[in-house]
Design goal:
The structure holds 2 protein chains of 2 kinds. Chain A is mainly beta. Chain A has one domain: Sandwich (Jelly Rolls). In chain A, 5% of the residues lie in helices and 30% in strands. Chain A has 2 helices and 9 strands; from the N terminus they run E-H-E-E-E-E-H-E-E-E-E. The longest helix of chain A is centred in the middle third of the chain and has 6 residues. About 3% of the residues of chain A have low confidence. Chain B has a domain of 188 residues: von Willebrand factor, type A domain (Rossmann fold, 3-Layer(aba) Sandwich), CATH 3.40.50.410. In chain B, helix 9 crosses helix 10 and helix 10 runs antiparallel to helix 11. Chain B is built from 17 helices and 6 strands. By secondary structure, chain B is α/β, with parallel strands linked by helices. The chains are: A mainly beta, B alpha/beta. Chain B: Keywords: Proteasome, Repeat. Chain B: Belongs to the proteasome subunit S5A family. Chain B: This is 26S proteasome non-ATPase regulatory subunit 4 homolog.
Chain lengths: 204, 402
């Protein structure tokens, strides 16, 4: 179910709503069937930047419009709605299926499993459409996997922006720590999370 | 240090009984598999490796991805050779095994040893490759054994369709290349896209029984640095000599109106041209005018009375070099230059002194010689005197002793 903004965005600051991007663990974001490895990270930015494609966009391989995007969060979040900006000329995705808290889904899993929710998308080049979630099912989300099985007829699927609206808790679902074997300490293994997510965001 | 889960697909078909790789293709494969497993687990302790066979009664997974090296080595024992390889099924089963890996954070990789002919169409292989690429699985192929026509192209097409920013590789190993594992050590399959595997590869080569061909000159630089250095020096000089010869050939091509004058002086001319070339190498710079000057000197020497001390000194350098192959072009060029200018060139002397004056070069040569201590005062005195008065003939014979 889509809802269109029926107010002009100047008096109501939409950007603060779509601030769950701050809680996304960007280095661990991955996608399957992307043409350029790592291009998926450019898709998560602030709402004001949603139409700014200077950082690149996510594109699927030639001849294959399926995309699978894996989004881990730095803490558990509750997702209220999702906004997707696609590309022009039929490269926008037509359907979206969401899976929650599942690691390592690949295409055969995604096609056979029942998603938590799925939507039919419209071409949304301005980024004004949002798709509501069944909020009760999207509580305590540690990671989100979005599967885009089809597009509007082009050879590839392009995604410029994915925005998530909701609330972040400070809890972490996944308690197993990453094990690092060290004979001598390697500073690059011990990056501090100085720019990670922090603080609550709230929804009007 | 990439975190990776690898499935190795072994070919145990009848074609691997062949002995064109020593001791037979299957054993060579097994050695290579052992080395790869070691390399993977050493580069990152959390890496896992699994093994499956593609021939025999059917595709069979011997061990699912595990980081336990002992299990992997154990399963390689007692394998039967027989049947025909099923490449497509093997890759698909490998993909399935990787899909169910325990640690989903690991990257997926399949390594295929293709020893028998490939019966599949290029299209089928490309479709398989696309599916692997879509699920971001990397593929490495080792093409050895049967040289079927079309097999290298098919495998290249397969790897090209999987390849995503250089993560997949293909290696062709002909039977003449020696041991399969030794050839693989230097490939990106082992070195893992240029990361930490090369350290392991060097250690493995040193530890392995053959331990020889892992290095450029068959010598471990850690064990025998002087020998490795001497070999490297002579290799560079040989290369410089060949460049000089190529340049001369190019010059000669532009002066094709060469004289076909008397061949009576052939022998001496040849020898002195070769000597001139060797002296070139010693200087390690390819300036054409220097070469010309040296050639002139060499020719002049053959024309005039051969000064034994000079040639003695040069023959010392001669001994260091490998055999010089002479070409007619060099000879014609030498003849031409002798016709043009036969005056003995005083610059030739300075060339020699330049050579001997090149301290780093000299110290390299001297340190490479067994039984000579570069810090020995007598050696140092000798070097100093050489640099000062290069015309002293009595220095040369003593230099010759070295």
């Amino acid at each position: 179910m889509a809802c269109v903004h029926d107010h002009s965005c100047e008096d109501h600051d939409c950007s603060s709503d779509f601030s769950l991007y701050k809680h996304i663990d960007i280095p661990r974001v991955s996608a399957l069937n992307e043409a350029t490895t790592g291009s998926v990270k450019s898709v998560f930015k602030s709402w004001e930047q949603r139409l700014n494609s200077s950082g690149g966009h996510l594109e699927s391989n030639d001849g294959d419009p399926e995309l699978l995007v894996f989004i881990p969060f730095t803490s558990d979040v509750k997702i209220k709605s999702i906004s997707v900006v696609g590309g022009a000329d039929g490269t926008s995705p037509a359907k979206m299926r969401a899976f929650i808290n599942r690691d390592g889904i690949d295409f055969s899993d995604a096609q056979s499993m029942q998603p938590v929710q799925e939507w039919d998308l419209a071409e949304n080049l301005e980024g004004l459409l949002e798709y509501q979630t069944r909020y009760s099912k999207f509580q305590g989300v540690g990671n989100l996997t979005l599967h885009f099985p089809e597009n509007f007829g082009a050879d590839t699927t392009q995604i410029q922006y994915i925005g998530l609206k909701g609330e972040a808790t400070q809890l972490k679902r996944d308690v197993v720590a990453t094990i690092v074997y060290e004979v001598t300490p390697n500073p690059s293994d011990h990056k501090t999370r100085a720019d990670g997510g922090g603080g609550l965001s709230h929804v009007e | 240090m990439v975190l990776e889960a690898t499935m190795i697909c072994i070919d145990n078909s009848e074609y691997t009984r062949n002995g064109d790789y020593s001791p037979n293709r299957f054993q060579a494969q097994a050695d290579a598999v052992n080395l790869i497993c070691g390399a993977k687990t050493q580069s990152n302790p959390e890496n896992t490796v699994g093994v499956l066979t593609m021939a025999g009664k059917g595709v069979r997974v011997l061990v699912t991805p595990t980081s336990d090296l002992g299990k992997i080595l154990a399963c390689m024992h007692g394998l039967d050779v027989g049947g025909e390889m099923n490449l497509a099924a093997g890759i698909q089963v490998a993909q399935l095994a990787l899909k169910h890996r325990q640690n989903k954070k690991q990257q997926q990789r399949i390594i295929v040893f293709a020893g028998s002919p490939v019966n599949y169409d290029k299209k089928v292989l490309e479709a398989i490759g696309k599916k692997l690429k879509k699920n971001s699985v990397a593929l490495d192929v080792v093409n050895f054994g049967e040289e079927d026509d079309g097999k290298p192209e098919k495998l290249e097409a397969l790897v090209a369709s999987v390849n995503n920013s250089d993560s997949s590789h293909i290696v062709h190993v002909p039977p003449s290349a020696g041991a399969l594992s030794d050839v693989l050590i230097s490939t990106p399959i082992f070195t893992g896209d240029g990361e930490g595997g090369s350290g392991f590869a060097a250690a493995a080569a040193a530890a392995a029984a053959s331990g020889v061909s892992g290095f450029d000159f068959g010598v471990d630089p850690n064990l025998e640095p002087e020998l490795a250095l001497a070999l490297r020096v002579s290799m560079e000089e040989e290369r410089a000599r060949q460049e000089a010869a190529a340049k001369r050939a190019a010059e000669e091509a532009s002066r094709q109106g060469g004289e076909q004058s008397s061949n009576s002086q052939d022998a001496t001319m040849t020898e002195n041209v070769s000597v001139g070339a060797l002296v070139d190498e010693n200087k390690r710079n390819d300036q054409t005018d220097n070469e010309t000057a040296l050639l002139e000197q060499a020719l002049a020497m053959s024309m005039d009375d051969p000064r034994s001390s000079q040639s003695g000194g040069i023959s010392m350098l001669d001994a260091d070099m490998s055999d010089a192959t002479m070409e007619d072009q060099d000879l014609a060029l030498a003849l031409q230059m002798s016709v043009q200018d036969t005056a003995a060139d005083p610059t030739s002397q300075t060339e020699m002194s330049e050579v001997l004056g090149d301290r780093s070069f000299m110290s390299d040569i001297i340190s490479s010689l067994p039984g000579v201590d570069a810090n020995d005062p007598s050696v140092r005195d000798l070097l100093a005197s050489l640099r000062q008065g290069e015309k002293k003939n009595d220095d040369k014979p003593s230099d010759e002793e070295k």
